[in-house]
Amino acid sequence: MNQLIINEITKAFTNTFKVKPLLIFSPGRINIIGEHTDYNEGFVFPGAVNKGIYAAIEKTNHSKSTIYALDKKSSFQFNLKSITALPEGSWENYILGVVAELLKLNKPIGNFNFVFKGDIPAGAGMSSSAALENSVVFGLNNLFNLKLTKTEMIFISQKAEHNYVGVKCGIMDQYASMFGKKNYALLLDCRSIKAKPFKIDFENYQLVLINTNVKHSLSDSAYNNRRSVCESISKTLKIKALRDATEGDLKRIENDLTPENYQKALFIIQENNRVQKASAAMLNKDLIGLGNLMYKSHEGLTKQYKVSCNELDFLVDEAKASNYVIGARMMGGGFGGCTINLIEKNHTTEVLTKVSQAYKSKFNLDCSIYIVELTNGTHVISQTT
């Protein structure tokens, strides 16, 4: 827990609204392996991490709800009776969307005040948006006794993203943020929306994120293109999603596809298989095997799915060249953001110093480093007294 942020949001809330709030932590997430498989109804291996959104919330008798984003030093008010989305890219839509989806379900919510701040690195692909959405729906569920299950709450968060933010995301981000468990990764079936927790003992290794601090403009159009390709090939195969395809199935229609699109679909099928192999590696406490699967995942993302970039590839190549990194890959949609690495604890400082210097020399840009731990999902920090 980041006590400094907890103190800051509590002080800001009580000074502004003169009452003690309900405090909530909603974590960001990592994904150990399983990239772009979520919208193909496949498997992913995420976990909640110890960086996220801290929120203070309480009911108000005023005619409007008031929201403060301390990170952005920005605030806004809205009336529950007339909620409309703001222009695309407005952070306010994550909150307005959740409220709107609750009202669509005729949930009896009243006006509220909400103050939040996060310590999720910007642009790192750790799903700060899902963490924020979950903090809002979780807080309102608690305050107004809506009796929503965690599963119902994550679908409200997802619909907020679809209908108000305009991002047709899968369910992984919201699920991992809400259902995370300390020291566990979640093998999530994105079709059934059921997960099996796997306890991971990283032994002498630790999870480290290295942020490229770049985000190339291709990302949105490339995501839409690849999603469209996957859906089109599924229709050709007469299946619901590529999760149902084998490499043999794909081989039968190879002549009907461009070489590029064949490789994209092949990557999804192989990545889905890698997730299953990763679960076996975790059960067997085979960290070396897990690391090798991470490297293979990155190779596929680079050469087959083609969503990587020079900066990400450089960081993974540096990891491969080290004797103290057993696995690394790009994490998230691609074209920037973070790599996720398994680094030997006793040599972490040495590895990261070398990588940082090499990255700066190559790109004239600083990378950012975050050591993360798997933690519990969205929860109350302390009740109002």
From TrEMBL:
InterPro entries: Galactokinase (IPR000705), Galactokinase_CS (IPR019741), GalKase_N (IPR019539), GHMP_kinase_C_dom (IPR013750), GHMP_kinase_C_sf (IPR036554), GHMP_kinase_N_dom (IPR006204), GHMP_knse_ATP-bd_CS (IPR006203), Mevalonate/galactokinase (IPR006206). GO terms for biological process: galactose metabolic process. GO terms for molecular function: ATP binding; galactokinase activity; metal ion binding. Residues 11-58 form the Galactokinase N-terminal domain. It comes from the Bacteria. Keywords: ATP-binding, Carbohydrate metabolism, Cytoplasm, Galactose metabolism, Kinase, Magnesium, Metal-binding, Nucleotide-binding, Transferase. Residues 280-360 form the GHMP kinase C-terminal domain. It is an enzyme of class 2 (transferase). Pfam families: GalKase_gal_bdg, GHMP_kinases_C, GHMP_kinases_N. GO terms for cellular component: cytosol. Its EC number is 2.7.1.6. Residues 93-181 form the GHMP kinase N-terminal domain. Belongs to the GHMP kinase family. GalK subfamily. NCBIfam families: gal_kin (TIGR00131). This is Galactokinase. It comes from Neotamlana laminarinivorans.
